[in-house]
Amino acid sequence: MQRVVLLGPPGAGKGTQGARLAAVWGVPHIASGTILRRLVATEKGDLAQQARVINEGKMIPDRVANAVVLKELEKPSALEGFVLDGYPRDVPQARVLDEFLEGRKQRLNAVVLLQVAEGTLITRLAGRLTCPACGESYHVAAAPPRVSGRCDRCGGALVVREDDQPAWVRTRLAVYEEKTKPLMAYYRARGLLHVTSAEGTEDEVFALVFRSAGAGGTTDSMVL
Ligand code: AMP
């Protein structure tokens, strides 16, 4: 049974690595940002209204993020395990997740932090193309789709995410520093944190993530 959280700044590769990890284990890849963007695009209710700040790189309210992710975790498909990507994003969300799992007599196996230098993040985000339909992402230079503008996986039309515009990237990195970084101490104190360099190729990073996610205890594959 694998219950894993991927942590890391925007552009670290959580989506790509999360999808691979989930596919190998046969568990759902629950990417809160992808779910929330779909909600904003397709629904008009209260939740969708509150999730609109997504386009400005700010966090949506914890209440909304918790509701959306717990609904996914309650599905039978998540009973045998999951890979969480983008959630929890702050300490209050981590507490909600802990309570949810405790209520089911379950616990996380590992929290893997993908660590990347800020310059690399900015280059990656500046060239990122995303498929709104399935969440797959590409890079114009480093990992282009086979057919220009089309998703390899589902054929959807690729877009530049509004919050990948340079003006909003700074906000997202600042939000990460302030709200998400404290999760490192939170999970390290619980013996769950594995710090992994995410600077290499997709395959190199996957090998590290896979090892960390399956390993017990705390590991640091690079100096913080
Ligand atoms: P991501 O795809 O993980 O980069 O998330 C994109 C955006 O979705 C973030 O900048 C937030 O606006 C929102 N978001 C995703 N996950 C969460 C979360 N757990 N809590 C609050 N906002 C979130």
Structural notes for this entry:
- There is one protein chain.
- The chain is of the alpha/beta class.
- The model has no long low-confidence stretch (mean pLDDT 91).
- The two termini are 29 Å apart.
- It has helices at residues 14-25, 32-42, 46-50, 62-73, 91-103, 118-126, 166-180, 182-189, 202-214, and strands at 2-7, 29-31, 81-85, 110-115, 128-130, 137-139, 193-197, 219-220.
- It has a six-stranded parallel beta sheet, with helices on both faces.
- The protein is globular and about 45 Å long.
- It has nine helices and eight strands.
- Helix 1 (14-25) packs across helix 9 (202-214) and helix 4 (62-73) packs parallel to helix 5.
- The chain binds adenosine monophosphate.
- Adenosine monophosphate is lined by residues 10, 32-33, 36, 53-54, 57-60, 65, 86-87, 89, 93, 163, 172.
